[in-house]
Amino acid sequence: MPAVPVDVDPFGDxxxxxxxxxxxxxxxxxxxxxxxxxxxxxxxxxxxxSAALKDHETFCSSRGVGLxxxxxxxxxxxxxxxxxxxxxxxxxxxxxxxxxxxxKALKDLRPQWQEKxxxxxxxxxxxxxxxxxxxxxEVYPMMVFPDTIGLMDEGRENLLDYAAIVFNAFGPRNxxxxxxxxxxxAAIAWVDAACKRENLKxxxxxxxxxxxxxxxxxxxxxxxxxxxxxxxxxxDTTVNGIGHLVLALSQNPDQFARLRADPALAKKAFEESxxxxxxxxxxxxxxxxxxxxxxTAIPQGAKVLLxxxxxxxxxxxxxxPERFDIERNVSGHVGFGFGIHQCLGxxxxxxxxxxxxxxxxxxxxxxxPLGEPVRRLNNTLHALASYRVAVQPA
Length: 394
Ligand code: HEM
Fold this sequence. Notes:
- By secondary structure, the chain is α+β, with helices and mostly antiparallel strands.
- It has helices at 13-17, 20-29, 46-54, 89-100, 103-125, 132-137, 140-149, 158-169, 175-181, 185-194, 205-214, 220-233, 236-251, 253-261, 266-276, 308-311, 346-363; strands spanning 4-5, 33-35, 40-43, 59-60, 129-131, 282-287, 291-293, 296-298, 303-307, 364-369, 374-377, 382-386, 388-393.
- The chain has a single domain, classed as CATH 1.10.630.10.
- A 6-stranded mixed beta sheet has the order 1-2-3-9-6-4, sandwiched between helices. It has a 3-stranded antiparallel beta sheet with strand order 5-13-10. Strands 7-8 form a two-stranded antiparallel ribbon.
- Helix 8 (158-169) packs antiparallel against helix 9, helix 13 runs parallel beside helix 17 (346-363) and helix 15 packs across helix 17 (346-363).
- The protein binds protoporphyrin IX containing FE.
- Protoporphyrin IX containing FE (HEM) binds next to helix 12, helix 13 and helix 17.
């Protein structure tokens, strides 16, 4: 049977402002839906999103994980050698990067990152209110991540602008994309320069990629593009992950009290916040063959939009999915994707999120919202511009 058409624009302002208001209709319409607004198929149920992510042979990434089909259109930038690559290329680049973003590397970083999270949160807790986005979520990742990569000091503020442009570029060329790209030449030029060997500091993860090139694991050109993956994916994602963690904790005082009673729950609290409000809302795939999902046919070469955030709140999979519950078993959530493309930086994000949650639990007695969050619309990320909270120190 043909896919059920759903008259919703997943990149329209109304949708991006509150995607959760639309997800139920997408999931209910069918296992596979047709989205006339973007001429693409879609899947929003946990079972099918998760299965598609695991089946990279049928649902490939090399034709772009945005709306643009690289078989027919010029990519916005040279494709990522990780996100927009299939095996065997992806196997090679991913193995190389996995050796750099290793459990041992993260273990070594933990003490410094913890000290920085504690210091920042303690300072914020001494005031009566602060902006959880501009004073915490945007600040903490910038205190730890660029130094880990070994980025040049000058111009690091370009990272957030650049990430916003790239995540917008996965959607259509709508007003949000156009507004973001206007005047972005400086940010793009800065990132190009920051990925070059001569601008990376010794000892960082960026230089480690070039050392892999010296061992002939990749070319120097590939090394630059792999470093670019760190820069694109490593900051705006965690910024909004941490922003939504604070949003969730402040809107659910019982859960914050639970966390305060047992700060060892910090790791679980961050993970649940990613399920509850998934920063990376969607990614596309392209079918490599005709495929049938639950009786619905998708032809070969079709763009399919996977609604990760809708899957993470699918009542067909989760009990009371709307409820933020830090003790929930969230294993299998797709906030970091799944399968061969599952987030390279998940340990980085988890460590940052855990340390912020722990620092809040230990230094803040109460945290409550001062109004609604102000959204920054992005074609891929559920993003925050500002969110003011009132706090009492512990
Ligand atoms: C809360 C923070 C983060 C979230 C929610 C997130 C989410 C995701 C998701 C959903 C994917 C899968 C894409 C797909 O299947 O097409 C992904 C892939 C990726 N992420 Fe993250 N990410 C986060 C943080 C990071 C960080 C800190 C880094 C860098 C250290 C990073 C680097 C990457 C890379 C390079 C890929 C592509 C991996 C591949 O294709 O093999 N991410 N991320």
